[in-house]
Design goal:
seven-stranded mixed beta sheet, Aldehyde Dehydrogenase, Chain A, domain 1
Length: 482
């Protein structure tokens, strides 16, 4: 089987072309820091071309009828299964994913693709009771039109696919802008996969460009009916403001930052709590929006938990993401590494105690664990997006809940307890979009609502929730001829 080529190009109107910007994107391996290739970036003319192709494809009905979409999505599943190793190799090479995380990511993408197979048959017309006896009343479910997708670098393949395939399954056409750090796994690789699966020209377009050059233009463009954005809260707030203040108000689906707590109650199994900490915080180097950003542990078990955690952390394999046992691989780029250095130093300056210092070598940041952390320290309030873990001590269960909710974020959370009913009651009062009892804070099921509260976003992804986001209702009445 041949491997994909021309992944350093733009995918517009079914054609692979070079971008027209004077800028280039250096695609760099985060672990070796070798340049994979240099991509000629897209400019605003390319954005115009992509949106024009998507609009023409939508208006000409290239994704109709429903069977067209279902057949293409079935083909896509087969293509991904056949090319699984190629996709995983790209995730390791370009995004610094460990082999473990890359496999999890491909499985997650396959899950949402499978879920989206049911969407075409749900784009229906429903008759509802009419309050006017002389008229019939109908609700017509329709696609929105063109959807713009802006995806991140941390789970680039899945988080791009999550919006792209569901939007297309609903009958929309898409323009995808991947993160500059992952133009292949978040962008052009999807173009190749959909192309091989038989997607009509213009139904999916990929423009990889600098955010400073095309980011605002991409969001403010009059063509898309919706912006689906996954990324930081700060950038997401800017995207939302521009989408709502542009000449045509756009719908928004925003999945933003998190500050997930793992709350360890006084009856918790400490061995389980330690494993939840290790996988919830350190998988993919902590570069996950749902990652356990802080641990809140009851004071009565704090010391025993800490002893077990420190012993376990010493055994975590760190380094080459291509090795099968590695848990912690490289941070995505040197800028992020520098940010982590600043976070660590600032916490120390404020008086937090660094009880485990794993070191930093190149782009690999090993675990750093802090105790004696004030809940208002930035390390406990802000998303570090790295293998840095503050541990907070709770006086009792109510104090633990207060600490868990003491954040401007509200994406994911986790609770560890030997009493499931107690865990449910506690979870109910956490102000977040998702809570997992006796499991890690990192979870994503294709049929379950994914999203957050407060500054963690708007809307819900997955299952029937994303179907609602990516379609619209049109009320229609007709004379009752009966």
């Amino acid at each position: 089987m041949y491997v994909y080529v021309n992944l350093d190009q733009q995918f517009i109107a079914g054609e692979w072309i070079s971008g027209h910007s004077v800028k280039t994107i250096k695609n760099t391996n985060p672990y070796t820091q070798d340049i994979i290739f240099e991509l000629k970036a897209a400019n605003t003319d390319d954005v115009d071309s992509a949106y024009r192709a998507a609009l023409e494809a939508f208006q000409s009905g290239v994704l109709q009828p429903a069977e067209t979409r279902q057949n293409m999505i079935q083909n896509l599943i087969q293509v991904i299964q056949t090319r699984r190793d190629e996709i995983i190799d790209w995730l390791i090479q370009e995004s610094g994913s460990t082999r473990l995380k890359a496999n999890i990511e491909v499985d997650a993408a396959l899950g949402i693709i499978q879920e989206s197979l049911s969407f075409p048959d749900q784009v229906l017309t429903e008759q509802i009771p009419s309050q006017d006896p002389s008229r019939n009343s109908y609700v017509v479910r329709k696609p929105l039109g063109v959807i713009a997708v802006i995806s991140p670098w941390n789970f680039p393949f899945h988080l791009s696919m999550r919006s792209v395939v569901t939007a297309i399954a609903c009958g929309n056409t898409v323009v995808l802008k991947p993160a500059s750090d992952t133009p292949v796994t978040g962008g052009t690789l999807l173009g190749k996969l959909f192309e091989e699966a038989g997607i009509p020209a213009g139904a999916l377009n990929v423009v990889a460009g600098s955010g400073s050059e095309i980011g605002d233009y991409f969001t403010e463009h009059p063509t898309p009916k919706m912006i689906s954005f996954t990324g930081s809260t700060e950038v997401g707030q800017g995207v939302g403001a521009k989408a709502l203040s542009s000449s045509y108000i756009k719908r928004l689906a925003l999945e933003l930052g998190g500050n997930a707590p793992l709350v360890i109650l006084d009856d918790a199994d400490l061995d389980l709590a330690v494993e939840l900490t290790v996988m919830g915080r350190f998988m993919h180097q902590g570069q996950i929006c749902m990652s356990t950003n802080r641990v809140i542990v009851d004071a009565s078990i704090h010391d025993a938990y800490l002893d077990k955690l420190l012993a376990r952390v010493k055994t975590i394999p760190v380094g080459d993401p291509n090795l099968p046992d590695t848990i912690i691989g490289p941070i995505i780029n040197q800028g992020q590494v520098n940010k982590h250095r600043e976070i660590i130093q600032h916490a120390k300056d404020l008086g937090a105690e660094l009880v485990y210092e794993g070191g930093i070598e190149g782009n690999v940041v090993a675990p750093h664990i802090f105790t004696h952390v004030d809940p208002y320290f930035p390390i406990a309030q802000e998303e570090s997006f790295g293998p840095i873990l503050p541990i907070l001590k709770a006086n009792d269960e109510q104090h633990a809940l207060d600490l868990a909710n003491n954040t401007r974020f509200g994406l994911s959370s986790a609770v560890c307890t030997s009493n499931i009913e107690r865990g449910r009651a506690f979870a109910y009062n956490i102000d977040a979009g998702m809570t997992h009892i006796n499991s890690i804070s990192v979870a994503d099921h294709a049929n379950a609502p994914f999203g957050g509260e407060k500054n963690s976003g708007l809307g819900r992804f997955n299952g029937r929730w994303i179907f609602e986001e990516f379609t619209r209702t049109h009320w229609m009445t007709t004379p009752n001829e009966g």
